[in-house]
Amino acid sequence: MMFLFSFISNMAAQTQGGELTKSYYDIVAVALIAVVLLIMFGFLYFGLGEEIKREKKFALGFQKVKGYIVGLKPIEKEKDIMFDHAYDDIRELDNKIPPWFNYLFYGSIIFSIFYMINYHILSSGDVQATEYKEELQFAEMQRIELVKSGALLDENTLTALKDAAAIKSGKEIFLKNCTVCHTESGAGLVGPNLTDDYWIHGGGIKDIYRVIKEGVPNKGMISWNQQLNPRQIQEVSSFILTLRGTNPSNPKAPEGVLYVQQDSLKGM
Fold first, then answer.
1. Out of 66, 139, 173, 193, which could bridge 188 as a Cys pair, Cβ 3.0 to 4.6 Å?
2. What does each C-alpha distance from 254 to 60, 187, 193, 206, 251 come to in angstroms?
3. What are the sequence ranges of the domains in the chain?
């Protein structure tokens, strides 16, 4: 008991900003259960008295322990708890509730008191409804992060981004990684002109996304799927679409074939 008291006292020192951590309450709950178990073993030990200690045969001592826990009378003493009535020569015994069941019952009462104080009075622990809400919030945060990283991006239903923040981010990525081959204006240098209507591998959002992701090794363009996540590739692809028709100075001659936008893609 002194060890458990010392253990709980030491754990009480584990605080964060003056507030007890959840792990502390979990440990306290385990310690309280241990106390209940010690009390139960104490009942067994002292309830049996010195008689068990003096038993020479372990089997006999075990039977006494079993009898104390289960609460069954020995066969030779069953006549003391036998009812007077009989049916078809079958006699009924007046067995009491097994002590082990009572121990569990009393232990559950003790546990419920600490549970009520911990979860419903002090509110130091989270009930299931609160834990469920916290898990939903955490799952939503994870979903938002996955969306930001593009991990949930479906390339088959990919669309061009139009919001200013995404276009700005795409421009920053373009200026950092693409100007060596395409110039800052997208007029083209080593790489093709990105401002006209002629495209080598297609001029739709899905086409541009695929080229950036997979690269064009035979033309010297690397695959960017290791340097950029799917969301960033979508952003820079969307920015490239905004360069179309900007008519920069000294543009590179058209390459590829004329790309005609579908009606659903116009304005992207």
1. 193
2. 101, 10, 7, 21, 9
3. 2-127, 155-265
